[in-house]
Amino acid sequence: MTTIETLPSYLDQTPEVAARFARLVERPVALEVKGLTKVFDSSRGAVTALKDLSFSVHKREFTCVIGPSGCGKSTLVRILAGLETATSGEVLVGGKSVSGPGPDRGMVFQGYTLFPWLSVKENVMFGPKVSGTSSVAAEREARQWIDLVGLSKFENAYPYQLSGGMKQRVAIARALANQPQVLFMDEPFGALDAQTRCEMQNYLLEIWKNVDITIVFITHDLDEAVFLSDRILVLDANPGRFREMVEVPVSRPRSNDQVFEPLFGATRKHIEHLIHPPGREQKEAPVMRIAKPDPDVI
Amino acid sequence: MSRPRIFSDWFRIRKDLSPGRKSLLTVFSFCLPAALWCIVSYVPFIWHPDVKITVAASREGSSTVLTAGDHLPKDYFPKYVNDVREENASEREGSKRKNQKLLRQISPLVIEAGWLDERDAQNDKEIYLFWRDIATGKRELPALNDENMEIVRKNWEILASSSPVFEYKSLPEEPLLKLVPQGKPANPSYLPAPDEVIETGWSLFTRPPRNDGATMGERYRSSLGIIFRGFLWACLIGVPIGILCGTYSFFSTLLEPFTDFFRYMPAPTFSTLLVAVLAAGDSPKIALVLIGTLPHMILMISKTTRLLDPALLEAAQTLGAKPRQMIGSVVLPGIAPNLYNDLRILLGWAWTWLVIAELIGVKSGLTEVIETQGRFRNFDQVFPVIILIGITGFVTDQILAWFHGVLFPWAGTSGRISRAVASFVTWPIRTVASAANERIMQDELAREARRKLRPSTESP
Ligand SMILES: Nc1ncnc2c1ncn2[C@@H]1O[C@H](COP(=O)(O)OP(=O)(O)O)[C@@H](O)[C@H]1O
Ligand SMILES: [Mg+2]
What we know:
The complex is a heterodimer. Chain A has helices spanning 3-6, 15-26, 73-81, 120-130, 135-148, 164-176, 194-210, 222-228, 262-275, and strands at 29-42, 45-58, 62-66, 88-93, 96-97, 105-108, 182-186, 214-218, 231-236, 241-247.
């Protein structure tokens, strides 16, 4: 526990980063959430999933939402996408109030939600086609998006032939093909193995750089949150409430080595303490078979 | 000492057997019942409680008339034989009339041997000559044992001394001998042996029908017609309703409770009603298949529709699909493979309704044969029909199962062959489509190029 003292404060932004954040808040607001409350009326009584949540996200910002399991992250993103209606409060995207799902907001789900009966190309064409784009134009656009996520070779494959990471790349391409203003992602890499997840994070940052898009990314993985975001919205559980909007002081462009930077560690530590306050998790050790002292196992 | 490999790993919990072992067991699953049937039929000491009469004789003073093919209990047969022997040995009154009847004793045997047409069973002239031929050894009738051959010879002696050809006038008054009953051990008539079933089955389908009834081919076609028409109607009504019920709570609450109730009223109970409403002919039968299948179809398909991953619907919504586009572009393609399998199962059930349907109103089709022949205990004619129905259902289902892979290559369950067929079948469509796409794409590019050119020519 010596590192704690040697870590800088997560608030110590370099002038460069501070200037970036200053420019960021100057940008127009892409997504605004005002006083959002969601109460589920289940058979076991009312459950307040979200309570009076307010925050805003600026254009081209990468925001992560993090919080303990069951704090309402999925509920939040489903309300933002219009799949769920809020009990009270308002969501504005590009200044317009959200009242249902629409192509101005893209969504990537944790589970694999590619249409299994459509090929990769047809999956990506789905959005443009249902909104009336001609097949030819939709196909041409789809090719570009598939190229962007690096799956040109697989454009005629069916989802069952793809790996988990590839499926999520197609899901991202499919969401982007609609040219949404905001892209919501609900733990999209949660089901992937650590290595693929790391690859996917780099891919995502690359895409974010090249595409005019604002991203709200739900995760429960601290490293993922710090690695990806400009700002991290930390939620409290029971009911889900605003805890803190953390500005990530790690410079951009991000690379995998930055995980070892002191500022990265400091930010990570801070958020970890917000989510799991220290000193609370001393649980009784379960009864187990005790090993004899072994000099080689220390 | 380790066991040889062939004995190990046949029983592993929830582990697949190797393909070779699987095929072997599949073959066995058919061979086993067949082998059992053969053993029971052909190994004499296993069961055989009856004697099947091959040579029949009538007895003086007995009202039961036994003919070849009838079954007698094993214990009773010796008494039957003895009765006839005693009758032969006793002092009897003879007459031309009786002797004419006795002449005809051999007609079933010569018909069976194929020497005489069935219609000539009472053609005494011909029969008379057969007596001669058999007695003189010109023809051999292995169906007769030595005792009966002796009787034939003795009878012919008597007959020949009166006339070399049949003439009622010159029939002797001296009583002829009766053939002594012969028989072979047999199982009860409800369990005919495989060869009998195959032989009768073959003749059922190849020989013209006895009385002016329909041929088996026509019956088969009529049965298939009823089941497929009934099933088609059920699909036309049931599939859309099922999908609507699975998609909209409105329809499921409005329609499913009554359907559920209706399901418990057995379809056959409507048969008289259907005949009254739709009159005789095929319509009430088709309607019965429809009524039997429809409620199950609606409930099954609505359940299948509800099982579609709701995340797919949500994904489609976030991609901008409007509610009216959802059924066509997500629900239908999403449930298609399961819907197809549902219909396969329902088609299997429809055969049950067919059997009942064919009994209502004017009996018809294959079931009529089962029903009428079963009443006469001609089970050797019943079994081929039952087996035919079984084979038809099974083969249809297997073919449909295989087509599942051709129709839904994306489900990832298709085998190599069905994938190849699928790509072969869709090849022309794909080629035409991609060529058309290419053309449209070029047109569009050309138009775009022209559009780009125009402003530059307009500006000075
Ligand atoms: N459809 C629902 N009905 C009732 N309660 C729900 C429903 N969806 C979520 N909840 C409740 O809301 C809370 C937040 O859930 P969720 O948003 O899934 O959390 P997270 O994604 O952060 O793990 C949980 O306590 C959950 O039980
Ligand atoms: Mg969640």
